[in-house]
Protein 1
Amino acid sequence: GIAALVSGLTIAANTSLETLRLSRNPFTIAGIRSLSTLIQSERSCLKLLDLGSIRNGDNEEVAVILANALTNNTSLMNLGLGYDISEARGVTFSKLLCDTSSINNIYSSNHTLEVIGDIEYDRETTNDEVLKYLVLNRNTRCLNPIDRGLVPMCKILIHHPDLTDMKPFYKWKLKVLPLMVKWFQKAGACQDYFEESVDVFQRRELSAMYKFIRGVPMLAADGYWSQQLKQVHVKKRNFEEVEKKQLLAILEKKRKLEEEEMQVLDRLSG
């Protein structure tokens, strides 16, 4: 049933379907996998997907399948699963909404999904960690409905208040500073979410710039010693080449002496 439905929607290259309610249908893992291909499609413009009740034994695997499918989805805003998210499934959806392992992974997280829960009875998930990011996606979109780029900025500032790890930026050296200023200017809208004063938010920016500038001399020092190491390696290679030539010369001289020795011995024996 579900596989046939998904196949039909995929073949039709449906680009106008925004709401899909399947809450009264029984599901299997195979059906959920088929449905995930529709969610992953670049042509999908689904905004609401209501799956309703799913067998409890399959909930954990369903969460993983759906989370993987939603990683790059930028249209789905409402996901109805008909159950409260447990701690284990909460970890899966929390990572989908905000992968805190690095700044880049936060940027690559899902910033579109706003509701997970029982859509039919208008009940959101009770998992606090997941709900926090869903509300953030929803509220930040309200701050700037046109530019979704503000959502990851707010998430980054939650987990990296002053862009803690500056090493990825060192390769651009001082060119980063004006970009950093522009980034914080744009992220200034997050003050409404954090309920911070302008002064407190500016301290984040100054702290980030200070950390970067403080790290630049170390970058210069690393560059100097890297250059010194390269020079040592060049000298070592030159020495090895000279040593090799000298060894070949010695072996050639030894060979000639052995030939002369054989000639002398031949004459003596004659």
Protein 2
Amino acid sequence: SHWLADVIVHLVVNVLLFILLPVPLVAVVFLHQQEAQALTLDRDRFFTLSDVLLGPDPSAPNWPTSHIALQNEILLYCALAFYGVLVLDFGCYLLEHFHILPTANYEVMRAFKAKADKANGKDTSYTGPIGWRIMFTFVGFRYLLHKLFAAMTTFACVATMGYIGLVAVWASLAAIINPTRFLAYTTGVLSSVALVAGRYKSITDLRNGLREQVRAVCLLSLVMRLMASSLLVAGEGD
């Protein structure tokens, strides 16, 4: 029962962690989509994120308010794919820990040994709880799934930080079009940047001050040791 409780706690913590991972990105996607649709009512053209990156394009069409921006659609599908891979990965984890499928590394080692014994003409009765071909297929699937899950987790973290920054710049520029609606976003962005810059400067100053103090202490200790050595040599000479 203790082992089962550990498995359940480990599973619940990891599932909650990875379920919450794409939530900030999805929230920013919905926020941008909502504000972009509202912004189309204030001007004659949809103000896109490509305008922030590449500059405004006068030939761009006037998109309807029901239009979903391409990058928002891609990110939402990526979030759904992430959850699908998450379900598969933790499903394989449950199959292994509840012995519905054997632990991959142990069974592969046993299967390789059985094949080697059979090739050398030794009598072996081990065939594994499932066929070795199925076992190798499962191991390969688990390996690819693990790598895919790690890559998608990295992408989710990078995309979240990058997209939040991009939408923040977009909202700041959108304040020129509709100051009443977007001035609050601009204020929040500038306040956040100022806070981060101030904290970074404080940490940098603290680090530099601590470095100078350590350097001064080390230099003083070196001078004291040299003076003690000089007095010791002078005393031996007398």
Protein 3
Amino acid sequence: LAALAALPDGLCFHAPAMLPAASKLRPAAASATGLRGLRAGASGPEVDRRAVLVGLLGSLSLSQAAGAEVIGPPPSATSLAQGDIQALVSPGHWIGQIIGVNSHSEKWALSGATPEQASTALKEALEGITPQERKKLLFEHLDIKEASPQRVRALTWTKSEWLDVLDVSFRATPDGKGTEATISLYATGFLPTSIPLAPIINTALFFFPFVSPNPVAGGLLQVTRSQDLYKMVSSRLPKKA
């Protein structure tokens, strides 16, 4: 709890919400109030234990942090140490993919482009992302894990280090005149990875529903991300003759 209390106010992009109220997209304010209450009750010894855990996890992540292909300012050492584990388990996606308030999947029709061209366009869009685009997409930190003609997969963190996954697969259309891309964007857990042992805690909280709004563009975060990424990719594809 002390670790959660240390988070800045107003940065709860992944906020808890009961199902009947999910469409209102109003849980962030309530969550921020809760964080202030936790902060007021935090005790010195609890903060000291958190510092020890962060130090231990940070030392374990040095080799990973050195080799990570992170775009933008790197996340904390704790997030780097726990990111791959939480992305692999993704307990926030177990129910989230059914409810649809913190995950989104859709298909893109990219006519006139090969899978390799489409994959390269997405990779270049992510590598060349501007500060304005990162702010709009809430891609404070971005780590490309795989980039091949068949798939692009990346881990993305918000400013408060909630971890999401971007996973896009590419295949040629049956007529060979274009590419069909299947994009999947989803939140991995209720708590940010900056909190020590977040993958374990998030697994225990897998049943707790939460919504991911986009406080910058409005609407659901993963939906608006998919729309913006489609535009970024399309603008980089070869123009039709």
Protein 4
Amino acid sequence: VHGGSFSTPHSNMSTFKNAYKGRSHKERSQPSARKKLGLLEKHKDYVQRAQNYHKKQQKLKLLRRKAEQKNPNEFYTRMVNGKLKEDGTHADRKDDIGIIPEETLKLLKTQDANYLSLKQQVEAKKIESLKSNLHFIGASDSANQHTVFVDDKLEAKKFDAAEYFDTVPELASRTHNRPRKDDLLSSDFQSMEATPQELKKSNKRRLEKYTELEQRMKRIQKISNTQQELQLHRNLMTKGRRKKVKDRQDGRPPVYKWKSDRKK
């Protein structure tokens, strides 16, 4: 043979043996005479059952070894934090071991109250700053009212807001930025008239400020509720008989009433 490769009958035979997997032997099913005994266990079922059995045996062996090698004098935290009752069950200790003293708790709660008071002052200053820069346009549920006193009912019926405020009828219903007719005719006011794009940006900035103000007012309310909660905890740590007169509602702590003790 000149050049190239060639294969022998032996190599073809080995390749065929590797490719041919042979005949698959099927396991027989349960004979009809033994149908009442259920399905006949196959080899794969036996393998699964054997693995489960050996796994449980290994676990039992490990637990048995731990029980045999356990040191009765070995320390663990449950010896301190728990106790054995008369019926043989374990329970948590009710003594003061590992519990923070009441004086330390009062001091910690006082520090928390001081921190909340500081945050409340900061939020109050920011709210006042926002209020001073904003007109509360539609912020409250009740609309702003301008009361005008007249002499009699007839004059009240003939009352014209535009004429009284010296402005055009389109601006009479405004509660802010209500220019007079002379201001509207002046050249200075006409030159100060804003474009639609500027009005859109101004309204957007005003809406953002109102949103920030609303969020800060909610935040200061939460801080106030937390302060009341801390003060209630400090009061409950003191002596004296008390009685709950109002349950917790709307995020506010419950209300207790202490019985007045006669001072000696």
